[in-house]
Amino acid sequence: MKIIISENKIELGKKAAINGASLIKEAIEKNGSANIIVATGASQFEMLEVLVKENIDWSKVTAFHLDEYIGIDETHPASFRKYLKERFVEIVNPKEFIYVNGSGDAEAECIRLDKIISKYPIDVAFVGIGENAHLAFNDPPADFETEAAYLVVNLDKACREQQMGEGWFPTLEDVPKQAISMGIKQIMKSKHIICSVPDKRKAEAVKSVVESEITPDVPASILKNHSSTFFYLDKESSSLL
To answer: Is residue 118 a part of any domain in this protein?
Structure first.
């Protein structure tokens, strides 16, 4: 895992996006197409703002949605489908974007997504980590063993408090208790991982990821086992290192 520390979140987002764009273009040049994973949340704002302006032939890019709440529709202010549609899909118009639909039968949706992503080796995964060091919505203790590409997960209190704290929901009770998340093993199959982690509130999680042993109790610690992970931090998120 390569750690890159920036002065602030704007610089972090720019560096992460430029590197990610370079890796996407490299895949297109080599294979004629690229397959990526796109995350959501406040940690991705600055990165996505730069990424969508990069000179990439998006008509050759297939993108996968990382996770979504169960039980809210795509018009809900906190919907990750809404987030990605507005901040990414409608701007770059990729060849295809495979959304996670949490509004219907969640188990059936996991099976549908599993069948699709099995045909697309992922070149670049854009991810973040949570205040509880979750990776996607795999809260601690995360399942490091499942082969499922997508699975139904229970969201712990710390995760739900983070979603409320970021302003996506008015109260803790409004935050869904379950989500559909890409599995840890599926994320780790990505050729390259761009992990953007700004803000002081993530400092404890960053310290745990960097300094702990690799353990399901610190889900994102698994990134240290990946051969090409770029861990982008700012001064605040790296302040406890």
So the answer is: yes
Four-CA torsion 76, 77, 81, 86, nearest 10 degrees:
130
| Rounded Cα–Cα distance for residues 191 and 135 (Å) | 17
Phi and psi, residue 9, nearest 5°: -70, -25
Closest by CA to 13, choosing from 177, 222, 237, is 237
Nearest to 158 by CA among 201, 194, 124: 201
Residue 80 lies inside a defined structural domain of this protein: yes
Residues pairing with 234 in the sheet: 6
Structural domain boundaries enclosing 97 = 19-123+130-188
Our count of domains for the chain comes to 1
Query: Residue 212: inside a domain, yes or no?
Result: no
**Which pLDDT tens digit goes with each residue over 172-222?**
999 999 999 999 999 999 999 999 999 999 999 999 999 999 999 999 999
DSSP characters over 160-212: HHHHHHTTSSSSGGGS-SEEEEE-HHHHHTSSEEEEEE-SGGGHHHHHHHHHS
